[in-house]
Design goal:
2 domains; globular; alpha/beta; seven-stranded mixed beta sheet; Rossmann fold
Amino acid sequence: MKRLLLRLSLLLSLGLATAAPAESPASPPAEAIRMLGPKPPATVKRVVTLVPSLTETVLALGAGSTLVGVSRFDEAQEVAKLPRVGGFVNPSVEAVLRLKPDLVLVQPGPGNQRPVETLAELGAPVMLLPLRSVADTEAAIEAVGAALGKKKEARALVERIEATRARIRQAAKGRPSPRVLLVYGFEPLVVAGPGSFADELLKDAGALNVAGDAGSAYAVLSLEHAVRARPEVVVDAADVDTGKDKTRAAPGLDTARWVDVPSLALLQPGPSLARGLEELFTLLHPAPARAP
């Protein structure tokens, strides 16, 4: 349930749009990384994160000892005992300031704009890190690495993601390109659309995203639209099954191959995207069964 609430809050904050076919869908322009409030100290010792993917980034950089507070959605064992400072769209300003952070790491969205601006106005250094695309994610890793004195570690993480993408693209060459629908929720039917990091990873894995003509990176499709899209594979990234039976029974969708994501790696825009891409490739191109 925690994961569902996080995903819904992220999607609502980024903005859901009812999908309508578009002749030439374009990815939204990347939002620049920005700083609000005072400049952080040269040596950052106290970090608060407001979304699990940024917590994952700090941990992957080997800077977990700087974390003093995380969101209520964080499930990593390394931060299990840390104070919680609220959710993505409703962080507690008081809880964050009580921790005296040297730096607050935020994925920006309309839903959290006011409390984040208040944090900066009250003296907390805030770094706004868009995480919509793969390029955004990699830029965020580099920026956090620079702020925490972990530039080499950040570059290594980014290079690992890009090396995995290159390897998976090469592996996908010459293979069939399945028509894929990646679903985040069934009621409403929320899917990965153009401009999302999941859309990019689907392309890396040699798939055709049948929601590539949707109106936004995280779009709401009608069931009729999903049926007309004729997916061959439906990737179920939803946390709850409410509405799934109805969707799965729809004409055309009932003959698609349905698969579940095995972990959060494909869902959190952070260092684990490389592993998520490998998992996605395996889901879309399963190895043939060996003869007895």
